[in-house]
Design brief:
It holds the Pfam family MHC_II_beta. It is a single chain. By secondary structure, the chain is of the alpha+beta class. 22% of the residues lie in helices and 33% in strands. It has 3 domains: 98 residues, Class II Histocompatibility Antigen, M Beta Chain, Chain B, domain 1 (Roll), CATH 3.10.320; 94 residues, Immunoglobulins (Immunoglobulin-like, Sandwich); 37 residues, no CATH class. The chain is built from 3 helices and 14 strands. The strands form 3 sheets. Strands 1-2-3-4-5 form a 5-stranded antiparallel beta sheet.
């Protein structure tokens, strides 16, 4: 349901601490504009006295003080019909303008999964699925463990307004993780044709440290190997048995050597 409200009345405002009157018009939409309910409310000293409801078709008193006004307005010729027509025009003219900024507005969520604490396997922990920056507020968040939906141990904060026409929500799952388990946060939102998912894999911290150490050692070894090869290539070749022509290279009969193809730096050296 979508609601539009417009203040009115003699001064258009309700002053706190004073006996002011207020007129308030509301449009309640269901399924777009298929069903529209118009309310015209008259309030005095913060108390609603009379209301026109388009579904009822006449003015109704909300208090004894408002009864004379409701009876008088209903006796006027075509007063309820005019109120209903005015309400239809008011709601229709405002729906298109506001719907593009509210009902039809779509902002995709950002989904992040993380544990509350860094703990080893087989210890109780809490996984957080943080869904942020989405609009509208209708959203569905589910937890899955190894492809199976988890319903027990799920706690939600509920919708939290961000103050910029977007929302956030955090859905937590209590776990006792074992090695190899995969936890998935599954999010469905009107802004997307397909769900958004984020995974967290249970992994022992010691194994993770060993893996990182192995990767670091491998990278360091490759670095030293590259430096050694570079130094070897730039060194003079000591195993050549005769001078090397630019387009003719001769290897020793028993030794396979790396050949330096640079021209000799000695200016007295000549090539045939």
């Amino acid at each position: 349901m979508y609601v539009l409200a417009s203040p009115g009345g003699s001064d258009g405002k309700e002053s706190a601490g004073s006996a002011g009157d207020l007129g308030k018009s509301e449009c309640h939409f269901s399924n777009g504009t298929q069903q529209v309910r118009f309310l015209d409310r008259y309030i005095y000293n913060r108390e609603e006295l009379v209301r026109f409801d388009s579904l009822v078709g006449e003015y109704r008193a909300r208090t004894e003080m408002g009864r004379p006004a409701a009876e008088r307005w209903n006796r006027w010729p075509d007063a309820p019909q005019r109120a209903r027509a005015a309400g239809h025009d008011f709601c229709a003219s405002n729906y298109e303008f506001f719907a593009s900024r509210t009902v039809q507005r779509r902002v995709e969520p950002t989904v992040t999964v993380y544990p509350v604490k860094s703990r080893p396997l087989w210890h109780h922990n809490l996984l957080v699925c943080s869904v942020n920056g989405f609009y509208p507020g209708h959203i569905e968040v589910k937890w899955f463990q190894n492809g199976q939906e988890e319903e027990a141990g799920v706690v939600s904060t509920g919708l939290i307004p961000n103050g910029d026409w977007t929302f956030q929500i955090m859905v937590m799952l209590e776990i006792v993780p074992q090695g190899g388990e995969v936890y998935t946060c599954h999010v469905e939102h009107p802004s997307r044709m397909s769900p958004v998912t984020a995974e967290w894999r249970a992994q022992d911290e010691s194994s993770k440290e060993k893996m990182l150490s192995g990767i670091g050692a491998c990278v360091l070894g490759l670095l030293f190997l590259g430096m050694g090869l570079l130094f070897y290539i730039r060194s003079p070749a000591d195993c050549l048995e005769e001078e090397i022509w630019l387009y003719s290279m001769k290897f020793s009969e028993y030794n396979l050597c790396l050949v330096d193809l640079n021209f000799p730096r000695n200016p007295e050296s000549t090539y045939g």
